[in-house]
């Protein structure tokens, strides 16, 4: 295939800059200070090939998934409070009211931290997982040489067929046969369902854009490697519309709107049933779609919910007739609180629920994710194996084998799967991020006994909203610290918390900064990959049940 070199306005801008600089300081700045210096801090140098033919856009790739749009947000008229920017950077410009039962004397309660995978991401601290002295900043006497990022799309509408739409239908039905609401529920008399499906919301766009801005600010310097090589990085995503938009918003934040098109190759891998794709392994892992294996978490989460909302149901029921609320409706209304806030900026559903309701809502998600895609799932490690193997490939410089959901057609060439980048960025779904953390054996994130099915939340370090919120991101830093350690080092970070690996990577020392020898970590990961049997876990007929820590792997018969 022919490389397309797209001349851009960069050259002109560069010349203009030079002309200006030369005029201002003719004796101190020479053309050679800019031109021909491969290591100059200008990314990308003019003339770097841009290859839009090999990396076609969404319109050419197809497979965008469903894309029903919702009603335009109108917070200026529908919100009960204005979104002043008073801090809370993780949720601006959303407005999140205080829960039911709180008064002005109650300490502020941020319910959005209890929304499981519907939470907006916020920074964790390394102390959350046992490294009180670690910072994501490069430790003193170290230099960073490489960064690997795996991140989730920002806030989206509900997926197709999710609980909120069914609840809306129930309201429509009840309205026809005589729904009467009062008090806290009065708003339901003229409430309508305004959400689309699947797509990123405006706030979701900002989360991925901001992540791009943040990562440019943190790691921009190591673009030098691409500058020196006169080559563009390949950042990857899936073909679903929100996934493409996620990668584009990230790239726009990282490189600039109107600039990223010429500064990064965005690789869009088709996501559809039956096709290999590391970012969507459930499309070929059969058992992940068998309820008794792939969604044992959903089952126990629903059972949990059926028992903890009775007093809330009674309170709301006393303000409505012509409808009978169930725990399924409560979960749907809690989700409407999350989704309407993300899509419309404000939701009247949020203040229906108490602090305790939000804690139960979080635990509902904790159960669901721990047993669907965490260590309690028999198919989590198998599904996370594709990214594990791709990371190992990038670590070792050797192309990965095909015994996972990865797509070898793309993973066998320097064009589509380069192994020498200083910066990697892959976008995916939250379930896959969690599967990947399990495949990486990062057991500090799941420390403690398996989650109790009726709610003993404090015995395990796993909290869904910390690991799988909108725009969650997992980062591997490769470092060189000659004054501390003779060999290359590596460490892992989740949403700004450095993860300790001394227990899960046998042979890694206890280290206050979460560091371990790169070569040793790679050998542990290779061992871990070898023990994950994709074919068995994804296709065999075994029996799995919630309540067990499987370390993400199917039980043997
Ligand atoms: C609403 O009514 C329709 C038509 O009777 C029915 O098919 C549907 O199941 C009802 N939906 C809900 C959520 O009650
Ligand atoms: C990576 O390797 C490819 C193929 O050898 C080369 O074209 C490219 O410039 C290299 N990229 C970097 C960032 O070193
Ligand atoms: C790999 O991906 C490409 C495009 O995304 C697709 O055409 C191909 O069928 C995939 N391979 C497999 C085995 O799924
Ligand atoms: C809550 O209500 C459900 C349905 O009526 C009932 O089966 C369950 O036992 C109740 N749970 C508690 C803890 O009261
Ligand atoms: C609600 O439940 C009661 C008691 O089971 C039943 O009599 C009534 O018809 C139900 N109402 C609706 C709207 O389903
Ligand atoms: C797709 O995945 C299956 C299962 O691991 C594997 O056997 C097959 O070789 C893969 N195909 C490609 C093109 O990667
Ligand atoms: C990469 O995969 C494609 C499709 O399976 C195959 O045709 C090609 O020969 C492979 N290239 C290498 C270098 O293995
Ligand atoms: C990037 O370049 C620096 C300086 O030349 C080098 O130390 C580092 O190893 C390079 N990183 C990669 C991933 O090649
Ligand atoms: C995974 O972590 C556990 C500790 O939580 C450890 O016992 C086990 O050896 C690790 N597995 C691998 C393959 O390193
Ligand atoms: C799986 O095993 C169970 C229990 O032995 C059996 O009832 C079921 O039919 C099997 N399912 C398949 C798809 O073979």
Automatic annotation (TrEMBL):
Could you tell me the EC number(s) of this protein? 3.1.3.8
Q: Which N-terminal residues, if any, form the signal peptide? A: 1-24
Query: What are the top taxonomic ranks of the organism?
Result: Eukaryota, Fungi, Dikarya, Ascomycota, Pezizomycotina
Protein's name according to its UniProt entry: 3-phytase
Membrane-crossing residue ranges in chain numbering: none
Show the GO MF annotations.
acid phosphatase activity; inositol hexakisphosphate 3-phosphatase activity
Q: Name the InterPro entries for this protein.
A: Acid_Pase_AS, His_Pase_clade-2, His_PPase_superfam
Q: Which PANTHER family match?
A: MULTIPLE INOSITOL POLYPHOSPHATE PHOSPHATASE-RELATED, PHOSPHATASE, PUTATIVE-RELATED
Question: Cross-referenced Pfam families, in alphabetical order?
Answer: His_Phos_2
PROSITE patterns the record matches = HIS_ACID_PHOSPHAT_1 (PS00616)
What organism is recorded for this protein? Cucurbitaria berberidis CBS 394.84
Q: Which UniProt key words apply to this protein?
A: Hydrolase, Signal
For this chain, the family text in UniProt reads: Belongs to the histidine acid phosphatase family.
